[in-house]
Amino acid sequence: MQQNPVGCLVPRTMEWRRRCLRPRVLGIALLSVGIILSLLAFHKTEVTYVKKVQPPLRELLYRPLNFDDVTAARHQTDNVSQHLGCVDAEGVEKVQDILCMKRPDYLTRYKNPCWVDWTVDLQMLRCLPYFHILGVDKCGTTDLHSRIAQHPHVLLNSGGLGKETYYWCWLKYGQWMKKTVTPKPFSYYLKLFQKPAATIAENPDPQGFHPLITGDGTPMDFWDFRAWPLIPQNRGLKEPVVLTPHLMKHMYRDPKFIVILRNPVDRLYSDYIFLGYGFTPEKFRTDVPKAVDMMEKCLEVNTTRQCVFSNDTYVNLPMRIHLGMYSVFMKEWLAVFPRSSFYILRTEDYHDNMTYHLNNIYTFLELDPLPEETLQDILEADRKHETKMKKKVHDMFPDTRELLQSFYSRYNQELAVMLDDAGFLWPEQDAPS
Q1: Which domains occur in the chain, in start order?
Q2: 136: cis peptide before it, omega within 30°?
Q3: Which of 197, 251, 356, 397 is the Cys-Cys partner for 127 at CB 3.0 to 4.6 Å?
C-alpha cells in the first residue's frame, strides 16, 4: 500500500513497527512516568498542606497564641472524649475518670440541666449548674454573684457563700490550695446542688415548665489546672490534652460562663494582701521582681502551659503572678466552647456601669427583666467580699506598677486580640492611682 504522508497510517508491517510503534510506546511510557511523578508531587503538596492547616491538638496548643489557632483548636476538641475515651472504667485511679461517665438524659421541661437519677432506691432529681462564674480571684466574682443571685429565678448552691464548690479545680483531685485532702467523687458535687434541685422541681410555671436555675461561682475553675497530671487521659504526658473545659463539655448540656477580669496589676496587689503574702508596698516591691524573674526563667526552658499549669509554680512563687496571664487560660476555654457561651467583662466597667452589665447578664442567662424598683435595690446593696485590709495599705510604688505592666503586656495584647476588645489592654489611665 502507498504510504500516507504522515508516515504511520499504513498497514502494520515490520517497517511500521520500527518507525511508528516503538516511538509511540516510548512516548506513552514517558508520559506515564510524567503523570506518576506529577501525582506524587501533588500528593506531597497535599499532605504538606494538610499538616500545615490542621496540626495535632497538642502541637496547636503549644504554639504562641493566635485567634485562628483558638478557633481551629475548638473544632479539634469538639469530640475529645470520643478520641480519648474512657481510660479508668474500673475506678483504679484515685481521681474519678469523668470521661467514663455517661452524659445525663436532661429533662426538656427544665431550664436548668436536671435529670432523674434511677440509680438510687428512690427516684431523685439531680441538677448541674446552669451557669458558672469562672473567675478570676479578686476581680469581683462574689459581688457579681450576689447580685445575680438576687434575681428571683436564681438559686444558691450549698457551697461556700452559696457560690463556691471548689470541685472542678481542687476537691475532685484531692487538693485544697497548697494542701492535700481526700479526692471527692462527682456524686459529692451533685449533692451541693440537691437543695436547689428540690426547689426547682417544686416550682413549675402554669405551663409545667421549670424556669428556676442555679450556678457555680468558683473563681479558681478558670485558672487552676495544676492537677492535670491526675486526669487519666493525661497520664505520662508532658502537657495536658484534657482539662476542666473538656470534662465539663462531656457532662454538661449547654453551659453559660461569666468571666470578670480586672487589671492584672491591681488584681495581683489585692490578691497579695488578701492571702497574706505581705502588707506593705515595700515588701511588694521586693517580691515582684522575684516573681517576674522566676516566671521568666521558667519560660526560657519550658512552654507557657508547663509553667502556668505547674504545681511547683503555684507553691514556690512569692505571689500568684501567673493568675493575671488571662490569655493563657482563656485560650483553653475558647478551644472547647464557642465564644457565644461566654459573657466576659472588665471589673472596672462593671463598677462604672453596674446597671448595664447586670441587665446584660440577666439577658445572657435568659432571665426575665426585673422591675425598676427591684433592680435598684439590687444595685444599691453593699459591695460583697472586699479586701478590707487593702484600704489600710498604701498604693504600690510606680516602679513596681511599671514592671508588672511590662510583664503582663504580652498577655493583655493576646487577650485583646482574642476577644476583639482593646479595653483588655488596660491602658495606664485606667489604673487607679
Answers
A1: 72-430 (3.40.50.300)
A2: yes
A3: 197
